[in-house]
Amino acid sequence: MEANGTKGLLLNEPLIFEKSSEGRVGVEPASFDVPRADAAALIPGGLLRDGLDGFPDLSEIDTVRHYTRLSQWNFGLDSGFYPLGSCTMKYNPKVNEDIAGMTGFTRIHPYQSEDLSQGALEVMYELEAYLAEISGMDAVTLQPSAGAHGELCGLLMIAEYFKSKGRPRTKVIIPDTAHGTNPASSHLAGFKVVPVKSEGKGVLTVEAVKAAIDRETAAVMLTNPNTLGLFESHIKEIADLVHSKGGFLYCDGANLNAIMGIMKLGDLGVDVVQFNLHKTFSTPHGGGGPGSGPVGVRLVLEPYLPVPRIKKAGKKFKLVTDRPKSIGRLKAFYGNFSIMVRAYSYIRRMGGEGLKRASETAILNANYIKERLKGTYQLAFDRPCMHECVFSDKLQQADGVSTMDVAKRLIDYGYHPPTVYFPLVVPGAIMVEPTETESLETMDKFIEAMRAIAQEAKTNPELLKNAPANTRVQRVDETRAAREPVLKWTGVKK
Amino acid sequence: MPYIPHTDKDISVILKAIGVSSLDDILGSLPAGLRVKGSLNLPKGLSEQELKSLLKGLSGKNSTVEEYTSFLGAGAYNHYIPSVVASLISRSEFYTSYTPYQPELAQGTLQAIFEYQTLVCQLTAMDVSNASLYDGASATAEAVLMARRITGRHGVVLSSALHPEYRDTVKTYLKGSGDHISEVMYCTEEGRTLPGALEGAINDNTACVVVQHPNFFGSLEDVGELARIIHEKKGLLIVVTNEAVSLGLLKPPGELGADIAVGDNQSFGNPLSYGGPHLGFMATKTEYIRQMPGRLVGQTVDKNGQTAFCLTFATREQHIRRERATSNICTNHGLCALAASIHMVSLGSKGLKTLALLNLSKAEYLKERLSSAGVKPAFTSQTFNEFTVKVEKDPDSLLKSLLKKRIMGGLSLKKFHPVLSSHLLVAATELNSREEIDRFAEELAKA
Amino acid sequence: MEFPKDLKYTKEHEWVKVEGNTATVGITDYAQDSLGDVVYVELPPEGGSVTKNEPFGVVESVKAVSDLYSPLSGNVTEVNDAIIDSPEAINEDPYGDAWMIKVEIGSDDDLADLLTADEYQKFIEEEK
Ligand SMILES: Cc1ncc(COP(=O)(O)O)c(C=O)c1O
Q1: Residue A154 lies in a domain
Q2: pLDDT of A90-106, one tens digit each?
Q3: Fewest beta carbons less than 10 Å away: which of A19, A81, A314, A373?
């Protein structure tokens, strides 16, 4: 088949420190319109800095070229198809960036008077309400900075609930398909993690939960749809079970893109959910954040939400901190506001109908890829999936080719690889999440590439093992990075 | 529908390939009674043009630090951000990519983080820095947990001159592991943590002492002496810096005995944004790498021996170690770190020193002008670009009356420290002109 | 894959070599192969003690972590410091240079339930 790639000009670029030349300044600070302070006289001797060893000195244009070149070594969502499972790499609308950049949103101080921040508080207040409606929850906090932060928030609230009742509970039940942040957040919140297997059909059974649950169980923490892309079809019964034991059902909402307008987690018996605005609500991932991880809860847990809360009194919005049962705060100020602005814009642009259509289309796209690639790659579970589907390298093993090789070869075809080796329960997992913003043509070309690679695995496996061949750097030696760690530049500045 | 490219024809091709006649055939296995009936109760979707004007209206309901003269700091600093920052971080190869899991496709992000790690090490004089954490407050909490793992001890001593919201964050994070937190009171005269007081506050079970420098009141701490005291008891010193520009002038935490340096780098390249996203940083000594939370980028080679970068020491992290990970953090604040790098590089060593001196100079000028207006510093310690003053009138009504003159006159400390009921925390940066400072002093004198 | 006959094995993939009153412990060829390139190992201090079936250390590759479980209880008389600096030895020579600790055998009962080479080989085939 015809590859996406063609020849390009990629320039080499040293480390920024190696471009430095003593004495250069890129963007000089403003001039002194007040007397120049005598730092040596003012600052106690022991506290004055001697030098700034190695700190680079560059002209403005060199800085611009440096980062421009680095950017060209990256593959972003705007560069091409990015079917990274569990990450919901949907298109990041440009208008949201414009809006988030409005000075009325960027240049406001968290401690400025509430009277001067009514627009910000209104956006936040309404976003909370939208997320509550989408999830079927009673109250939402926007404070957490990312999904994992939201998980911690939700779990601390659950812990606090039991503590305040004088009956602290110690355990959280987590299926083996869970993302690593789930057990890590549970541990951080002080719980013991009780793993359960999602046997047979890739979903959690009531029996499995029953065998693990007891009066020490504070919560069952699941992801719905789960990380296999499957709907946890027994969720309601599991919810009833955990509720009958006095516990809570926590849902990791990272996969909300599958069910907006189709199902509300609240209707399914979920008590706590975190949203990943940087997935479902189209805010860009930034090469590793910032994200935003709001948390929705049922009324019983509302008193435990972090402070401050936003309240509306008449037409005015205000921040309320006097909430004795609250878990406190998880960060300074109120959350990743500029991310909230983007998510708010997205929801307003889409409307309720649009969000539903997004989820429906995400499901169609995933099923399309699943159907057209099954047989070429082994499906972990041959059942209708939700917004993502999971294959494995089982059929390629005979050719001596692994998931990693397939992933790397996809790069040569001009695609970002899917999520690989996750979830852990599927050996050699290849997790594809196309999202709703990808067209039929894009998917067709991707499918063609995946099939071509499966063919190459048979005829010329070396091609895969040596992939990627078209990138500026080829397969990276991660073992060396760990055995001989170099974690910063240690050269000498010119 | 916005952002969804499918035509009706596409949908029918897709349905046919799946072998169903409608989406409902796929969703058939979902519990039917639980499906959403009708549509979500959300406002109708908007065109792009309508959306923009709606949001323009909402943003206009906020008053900015451009429209007002602001002397607010307290952990969020109003600095000038060079145009190169927005221009470069707006390159979509940076901002629309995910965490660099596939190094061959993410060398740009990876090298940029490696450079950021280096810049943080240079700024703080520490051995290793991670790729970023959420913000200064959560970074402080992570540092405390890390100190507990390193020392095997529980006790945590916070200086009460640590930002109150940082202290609250530490308390929340430690709820799961037993708090054992105590506070050492600041000296009411000097506005800083007294080494003598610290001596009485620590013992053989103290994992760490946390001090902010410059502290919440703006005062410089005697970090070296505090370090000596906690090290004598074999505990660790965590130094928090939330006005990172100060590092252009102040001796870095690594040279003052810090074992872990954390804080917020918002001052570099990241707008106030009503408090977020800001940029948590953490740097420490080589021997503690394995206890560090967050992502780390390392330099290595590709299979042809060419220099390359990748994520490393991943076995510390949640995706591998799960409940035994050093932290639950996954998505961090990568793009904020990129912005900070670009700003730092744009300044260079000379520019950064000048910027720090400019901030000190503005604050000293403000101090002097306020003093002449009868508003004196509340504490005797030296400060950087922020300090605490005592006012005659009730600070809240004073601030209100200043707002009428379009001045955000600082932060009333009453709600954080009830004893400081007539105190204001004021900051001055390069963005406060001499005229603004003069006017602020005049208005204060009048009020 | 090798399974030397003169060694005893555990289901956690450690091997034990008994010489007089001393048991030498390491990880098996199978274990190193499933881990991939080992980049880090953590061992107990000399003079410390280990407990049967309890973790005594950690081995890490780039993408996996594994606890090391002690096949017996007793005092650690010697630790192979060389592999801490060169963990690649674990991949290269798991039964030789890359031994991990030597333990003074407290009770022979501890060794009774260890697997023979054949039993271990069968066990891992079943596990696959
Ligand atoms: C299923 C799932 N849960 C939780 C998370 C954690 O979210 P974040 O990276 O925002 O902390 C992720 C993202 O990687 C995820 O895929």
Answers
A1: yes
A2: 999 999 999 999 999 99
A3: A314
